[in-house]
Design brief:
Oligomer: single chain
Shape: elongated
Strand content: 35-45%
CATH topology of one domain: Methylamine Dehydrogenase, Chain H
Largest sheet: 4 strands, antiparallel
Strand order of the largest sheet: 1-54-53-52
Radius of gyration: 26 Å
């Protein structure tokens, strides 16, 4: 099920993805200034196979400042090992569904959106005739009455079908013209279209409230009388078994699953779907070799049934942890099968493949992909060439400025929430972690390493449920940001500090990071979002010159870093631009930046070389510039 997000004034922090290598693949510099470093990787939002080539895959990776809204389409010719762009003509679009044409080699169709999937969305249906190298718009979403935000696309031998807001759009001339076919007697938004692989005259259309069947390639449709329709339950996922096309599966709310073995004419008794924190997003895939094997992807992981949905078990062997509360990047984002019978699993942390019906899984190297989500990026204050950063849930260290990387053990206590290196004690790292209890309530912990991240102490509980940042402003002192407040831990005790700004019904401040200036004790910068009633949220930076007792507004913007070469000065980013200014007074001076469409998430200034900057963006890994970002 697709999720729609309202427009925001700040970048969306979305979930996604796991590092799959230790050395970065060669990649061109971005506009001649920024070069990717660190491990390759990314978490596809969509995965599709080519029926004419078992090793050819297409995947849409999050891209741009709004990673959940924009995607970058890539193509692999070796089953996911290496990738290249296949996105020209789709810039600024979000790929919702993708299908290859088995009758025209190299031809692809894609449904894309810009803001949503409704009649006024400027997206539409696109076609490529060269395996994705170039794309052109066939028809706008508005001309079809809006497109579906799911897998509502199927290519037949003589037609292309697209799910719309009220039924199905059909084209028999490669997308040049379209016929709108409302479904009757219950018009519905069609989110899934599947065809019989043995006879593509047989097509099924699944909507939230009704299901339909066509016996003439989508020209006419008959309503399916299924249990979900009779009970008034919304069907969120629908699948057909390639091994036995008469076998259908339908998943509805409240963990309801039904199966038909005669093409939808009759349905068996309700089967209970996997228990767990499924939330709203569900992907169904029937195994291409066995109609009794059903894969069930959720926001909480991957499950499999070997008996037609009578029972399920969670798949874990060879897969990343996708459990909510144990990772910052849960969820199955896509499932696909290729003509060799392999299953491809897209998650928030990467791409995995199984050649034995899910018994064993192999991570795709994803060489050439730099769509990592980097949540933390830090310099070691005692070893300037050493950088620590996270790629998805994995913590990495580089001792040579990013040329090579190696993983470090993850801090205990759950998903990493904050990470800082102690500027007063060599090799000390402090981390905040969080996990959910049985009632889905967050449990926050503070832990530390005294050997540079190779080993971690047992976690210590933090007396608050939510915390987003920490800092080390003085020896043996830790500040933890909780909502609009700051807690101080010193000598084993917690003390409440003053708020960054008064909190009332009209506004509040949420921390993303606290910066402590090691050369000027008591100087702090608070980075976060200023929320105002009816006005949204904007990134702001506040300043304190007395260790957090009093705060004042400093700058608009997001990530910041103190200048290690000149005391009393800092760099900060606002959108795609990087600025420099004094802490006490003065105005900001722009020194460089990225393309206007990018947003910086982290910013580091190399203490050894004032010309070198490291940054991370929303879903493009770590980038380095050696010319002051000009």
């Amino acid at each position: 099920m697709a999720h729609h997000l309202a427009p925001l004034r700040f970048p969306i922090l979305w979930t996604a993805l796991a590092a799959l290598g230790l050395a970065a693949a060669p990649a061109p510099a971005v506009e001649g200034r920024w070069t990717p470093v660190g491990p390759p990787g990314g978490g596809p939002r969509l995965i599709a196979s080519d029926p004419l080539s078992a090793n050819r895959l297409y995947a849409a990776f999050p891209s741009g400042p709004f990673g959940t809204l924009d995607t970058l389409l890539l193509r692999s010719e070796d089953a996911g090992a290496t990738w290249q762009e296949a996105n020209q003509g789709l810039e600024g679009r979000r790929i919702i569904s993708l299908a290859a044409d088995a009758t025209h080699p190299g031809r692809l169709y894609a449904v894309a959106a810009v803001q949503g999937c409704f009649s006024d969305d400027p997206g539409g249906v696109y076609r490529s005739d060269d395996r994705g190298a170039h794309w052109r718009l066939l028809t706008a979403a508005a001309d079809l009455g809006g497109t579906s935000c799911a897998q509502g696309l199927v290519v037949l031998s003589d037609a292309v079908l697209v799910g719309t807001g009220e039924g199905v759009a059909r084209s028999t001339d490669g997308g040049s013209t379209w016929q709108i076919l409302p479904l009757s007697p219950a018009p519905d938004s069609v989110h899934t279209l599947v065809s019989d692989p043995r006879n593509d005259r047989v097509v099924y259309a699944a909507g939230w409230q009704a299901r339909f069947k066509s016996l003439d390639g989508g020209l006419t449709w008959t309503w399916i009388d299924d249990p979900a329709s009779r009970l008034g339950e919304w069907v969120k996922a629908f699948a057909l078994s390639p091994a036995d096309p008469e076998t259908l599966y339908a998943y509805a709310g409240d963990h309801s699953l039904w199966r038909s073995t005669d093409g939808g004419a009759h349905w068996g008794e309700e089967r209970v779907s996997p228990t767990g924190r499924l939330l709203e997003s569900v992907s169904l895939l029937a195994d291409p070799r066995d109609p009794e094997t059903l894969y069930f992807g959720t926001d909480d992981g991957l499950w499999v049934s070997r008996n037609g949905g009578l029972s399920f078990r969670r798949l874990r062997r060879g897969l990343p942890d996708m459990s909510i509360g144990r990772t910052a990047f849960p969820a199955v984002t896509g499932l696909a099968a290729d003509t060799a019978g392999r299953i491809h699993l897209a998650t928030g942390t990467g791409l995995w493949t199984s050649a034995d019906s899910g018994l064993h899984w192999t991570a795709a190297p994803l060489q050439g992909v730099h769509a990592n989500v980097v949540r933390f990026l830090r310099f070691d204050p005692f070893r300037p060439g050493r950088i620590l950063f996270t790629s998805f849930d994995t913590l990495y260290a580089s001792g040579n400025g990013g040329d090579t990387w190696s993983p470090l053990p993850s801090p205990p206590g759950g998903a990493l929430q904050a990470l800082e290196l102690d500027p007063f004690r060599r090799n000390r790292i402090v981390a905040l972690t969080q996990q959910l209890d049985a009632d889905f309530q967050p449990l926050l912990s503070l832990t530390e390493s005294r050997d540079g991240g190779r080993h971690w102490d047992a976690p210590v509980a933090v007396p608050q449920a939510h915390a987003t940042a920490l800092a080390i402003p003085a020896p043996d002192t830790v500040l933890v940001a909780v909502g609009n407040r700051i807690l101080r831990r010193q000598g084993g005790s917690w003390h409440v500090r003053l708020r960054v700004q008064p909190e009332d019904d009209r506004g509040w401040f949420d921390f993303s990071r606290i910066l402590a200036d090691p050369s000027r004790p008591g100087t702090l910068l608070a980075l976060g979002l200023d929320h105002h009633l009816h006005a949204g949220a904007a990134p702001k930076i506040y300043r304190s010159l007395d260790a957090g007792l009093h705060w004042s507004f400093w700058e608009e913007g997001g990530p910041a870093v103190f200048d290690a070469t000149r005391s009393g000065r800092a760099y900060f980013a606002d959108g795609a631009d990087i600025y420099r200014r004094r802490i006490d007074e003065g105005t900001a001076q722009r020194i460089g930046g990225l393309r206007p469409a990018e947003w910086l998430r982290h910013l580091l200034a190399d203490p050894r070389d004032p010309q070198t900057f490291y940054i991370s963006t929303y879903g493009r890994g770590v980038l380095v510039s050696h010319d002051r970002a000009r």
